[in-house]
Amino acid sequence: MAGATVIAVLGLVAACSEPAPKKEYDVPKALCGVPVKPDLLSPFLPAGNTAKVEESRPVPSRKMCRVDVDDTWAVMADLQWWEDDVDVSTVVTANPETEKAVQSADDDFFYSSTGAVKLVKGCKNPDHARHLLYTSIQVNDSDLGDTAAMKKLSAAFTDAVKRSRECS
Description:
This protein is α+β, with helices and mostly antiparallel strands. The protein has four helices and nine strands.
């Protein structure tokens, strides 16, 4: 019995001494074709060996960018064109992870620890007349959520989108 106790204790000590998992990959430098500072995106990405960004346009009014870490989605960023008479609260409810979002003072920005929706002010595109462009970010792992970091990431991403070809 004493031998079993020693083995159990040694097992616990060995488990505690293992290094914490690390990010063995380079954090992406762009989402949806627009630059994003890796230090703004990094807090929302889990440890792992590989990271890749995949883009798709399931409908003409939406561009999706997904960051997968070890083949599991970690962060989703979207560009969404909505008719200009649609209220921002409708856009927010259509985006998971923003259900309990804080609304900014200027009413065009909603954010939580794991998601954000922001209007790209002044963005025009002839292919989307009478529409407004919103950015959306969602984080898969709620343990990686951080409200202040999400606000910074979303603001930087939205500013980069405004300077991109999406807005002409």
